[in-house]
Amino acid sequence: MFTHKKPPWTEKLVDRAFIHMTSVLASVVSLTVLGIFFTVGFQAVFQGDVSSLLPWHQDSIWQGIAAWNDEETFGVRWGAVPHFGLGFLANSSWNPVRNDYGALTPIYGTLMTSALALLLAVPLGVGTAVFLTEDFLPQKLRAVIGFIVELLAAIPSVVLGLWAVAMLNRFLAVFTPLYAHLGWLPFFSTEPGGPNLAMASLILVVMLLPIITAVSRDSLNQVPMELRQGAYAVGATRWTSIFQVLIPAAISGIVGGAMLALGRALGETMAVTMIIGNSTNLSTSWFSPSSTIASLLANQFGEADDIQVSALYYAALVLMILTFLVNVCAQVIVKRLALKYD
Amino acid sequence: MTSNMTNAMASIRHPPTASGLNYNPCAPRNLWNRAMNLLVALFALMAVLPLVVVIGYVLYKGGGAITPAVFTELPPAPGLSEPMGMGNAIIGTAMVTGGAALVAVPVGVGGGIYLAEVARKGSFAQSIRFGVNVLAGVPSIICGLFIYALVVNTRVLWGESFSAMAGSLALAVLMLPTIVKTTDEGLKLVPQELRMGSLGIGASRFVTITRVVAPAAVSPIATGVVLAIARAAGETAPLIFTALFSPFWPDWSSGGGLLAPTATMSVQIYNFGIMPFEPQVQLAWAASFILVVMILAANLLARWLARFSAS
């Protein structure tokens, strides 16, 4: 009655092929990551395009490397990494006329805008997340506010940049009194008169808020009810229980979210490029135009040639390593600090 | 005697704070409590405010700039105010984003299936998960530089340099991690019993995955895909060195318009928004309006799709 029917051989073939296909598609992701690191690194070390890696290419770099001991290293045109070395990171001049490049100004701008933005966005974002997880408002209204904050993450950065450009004069009016009264501080020492670093940080705050809020809200929501009930039962007020129990229990998610946001801020391009002024002169003042690595790339890559292209790729490599480290730290922190409630 | 009694009663009604059971509104901890309530309410307001202001401003400025000509005409030459349109950029955004989805959705869904169904815990799967997270953190402008170095500069695509296809590839790199992640997460939510049942009655793995598991997870996957496409449509940084820009209609003779530099709405906002000419700035606002409306619609669509998985 029940006969064992052998499945047709095609079935096994299809099965195998499908499994292999998915594994190939999955490895595309890893290959892309490696490809990005390799390509950017290659362009930072060599001038010329990637196809000169092919041995049969007429300008193949292998010929040049083979002829390394010759008087002329024909074929190899070394790029920014051999030219400038690590001094690139500490040199603040960016001079296409003398072909002297250093990334100190954009690196300072990147770190400063991100730090300022994070400083403002973390309290705001975590506060909003607390507001949305406590019972201040009815559940429905809270869901709507949460949705609105998430929508903020979906607005393209170039639109935020356009808005910032339109609003520039109003913000300058806010900055001017700061300069007038606190001008003796190095951070406020120039008169705000156009696109500047402070504006870029404020736009970054708007972009980081939804990330920090969403991640913090999720991790606060995952704190078990018993912890809160326990805190209330021993007589803690709402805010004692928030500060002493809920936030410590959710700290892994909150720190991880802040790190993710930092990664975003470091690499954010369009809105910052439109509002930071793209000056390559180093200035400590927040009210003077500056540049970030990403804005430098967006602004100069189109018109650059020869060693400048390679220098831009070097700067891009620095940016990649920065964001990579921040993202890996975020993942490690989330794993290490996570309290398990099962 | 009576005054003693009233005193005692008063102390019962208003007991001293240390041992009181009644709420004392002036106790420091309660003052602190109320101050903090106010503070976070203020924070939440400040978080919601930019969205309302930005969307309101974009709808106000952009809505005023929308005319029928916007969809059918080309942008004006600098200094002129006729014709006032950006039909080329609208077509370009559709072409570039569509191309990106064609590349990223099969690869992303396939990769997600591999992670969730084929190799859940192996070290290879873990390394790919790590790769997905790293790729998600790569700044978007670097995706543009990568495709520039790989495709545009080497003229791999039939000898063409800047092209809509290169732009699609750059956006695909950007979309890939989102799609892999949502597919992976979506498939993990499918109950294990479905797989066991399907395999138990003799279905092959291929049939189990494509006929049983994937249909059960189609709603979260579709949500992720819609959001990824909406996000990609608004991306600018990967396109400025790959698809570049063009003030003309797509050149249909070169690969059906895919192999020529192509205008997109997002790059148009960047290029026109900082120009000193009023018509160009108007068009930048019109493009912002269209993008924002499109993205709001995509988010609502995603919400609507997500409802299916909940029920």
Query: What is the multimeric organization of the chains shown?
Result: heterodimer
The class by helix and strand makeup of chain A works out as mainly alpha
Assign a percent range to the helix content of chain A: 55-70%
Order of helices and strands of chain B: HHHHHHHHHHHH
The CATH homology group name of chain B: MetI-like
Corresponding CATH architecture of the largest domain in chain A: Orthogonal Bundle
Provide key terms for this protein.
heterodimer; A: 342 residues; mainly alpha; 2 domains; two-stranded antiparallel ribbon; flat; B: 12 helices; 70% helix
Report on the structure:
The complex is a heterodimer of chains A (342) and B (311). Chain A has 342 residues and is mostly helical. Chain A folds into two domains: 9-85, no CATH class; 101-337, Orthogonal Bundle (MetI-like fold), CATH 1.10.3720. Chain A is 67% helix and 1% strand. Chain A has 13 helices and two strands. Chain A has helices at residues 9-45, 61-66, 80-84, 104-133, 139-154, 157-182, 197-222, 225-233, 238-249, 251-267, 270-276, 293-300, 307-337; strands at 94-95, 100-101. A two-stranded antiparallel sheet of chain A has the order 1-2. In chain A, β1 (94-95) and β2 (100-101) form a beta hairpin. In chain A, α7 runs antiparallel to α11 and α8 runs antiparallel to α9. The mean pLDDT of chain A is 84. With 311 residues, chain B is mainly α. Chain B has a single domain (68-310), classed as MetI-like fold. Chain B has twelve helices and no strands. Chain B has helices at 2-13, 28-65, 68-72, 87-118, 123-137, 140-152, 164-188, 192-200, 205-216, 218-233, 265-273, 278-310. At the A-B interface, α1, α4, α5, α6 and α7 of A face α2, α4, α5, α6 and α7 of B.
